[in-house]
Amino acid sequence: MEFRDLKAQYRRYKNDIDSAILKVLVDGDFIGGAEVKRLEDRLAEYVSVKHCITCANGTDAMSLVMMAWGIKEGDAVFVPDFTFFATGEVVSFRGATPVFVDVDRDTFNIDTVKLESTIQRTLDEGRLTPKAIIPVDLFGLPADHFEIARIAKKYNLLVLEDGAQGFGGSINGKRACSFGDAAATSFFPAKPLGCYGDGGAIFTNDDGLAELINSYKVHGKGDNKYDNIRVGINSRLDTIQAAVLNVKLTAFIEHELDDVNRVYRMYNEKLNGIVETPGIPEGYVSSFAQYTIKLKDREERDKLQAKLKENGIPSMIYYVKPMHKQQAFSQLKLNDEEFAVTSELCNTVLSLPMHPYMSEKDVNRVCEIIYNKSKI
Q1: Phi/psi of residue 206, each to 5°?
Q2: Which of 78, 69, 87 has the alpha carbon at shortest distance from 121?
Q3: Which neighbouring-strand residues pair with 103?
Q4: Beta-carbon count within 10 A of 113 CB
Q5: With 0-12 CB in 10 A as exposed, 13-18 as middle and 19+ as buried, what is 21?
Q6: What's the pLDDT tens digit per position in 232-242?
Q7: pTM
């Protein structure tokens, strides 16, 4: 069994994907070109924003926004404690300080009550200047973006939505990657919309920001790539990956988002009362980058993971270690007591196989092991 079955997806769309790649090879159009432009236009239309700017990966997508906003040393950027390292890394990369915030136990996303109190405490301390918030759409579920927007407006903060896992999710019909002042996503192969390598994109309605990012991503170019008006980076999505994504985006829109939610409903129905299953708030849609259950404690979680492995069923722990305990951030000297929920989740979460091509037979096979967890 595959954790996320990219092979099944390829078998279904083999002819379309092979043809798209072959066309790029025949045309010899490997950097930029029509496929990249078509993808950016389609993504912007799907998300309902003015600008989509593709780049080399999701981390670069966030970094480019940080660069364009001028985030620098002495600035504070508020980041959830329960997320992948890159969300905090892009802040430190600019010389600024990531300020971690505990998360909501039910949604796994940033706790907005704790977010506001952390912003206020940072202002009271006076060492750092609050500048931005990076809420994460973890496991495919959008963060509480309308409340985050209220808080950001109150404290005059910028918002960068980290939609690396959230593409396709929505709140009351408003799609992930359309929230905040800008949004970033990743096309890493295992993401809801993934390519066959690395890739990323930035979304925004801000014309000036889009212009800046388009410059920064190609060595700070001006009118052309040999007219450099600022120091930038080299971060472009190559044309082969864009061609693959154009095929996959059609599949994602036509059925994959619906199918992954069908699998979610099967899991929840079969595991109800057996383990703590993910809940989706009213009005929300998740794109289920992961399907994550909670166990009683670390011992129960680790035993179940071992039993699943014995039966040929892969599972993953997202995340083993919270942000505030990463060695790279040890100089921040943070207090464990402020991150009680994140610490609990790191000891109890387990992500099960989840993808649009999963059959009910596969779901039943996973659930049978979990039904017998008391015997493990």
Answers
A1: -90, 110
A2: 78
A3: 110
A4: 12
A5: middle
A6: 999 999 999 99
A7: 0.96
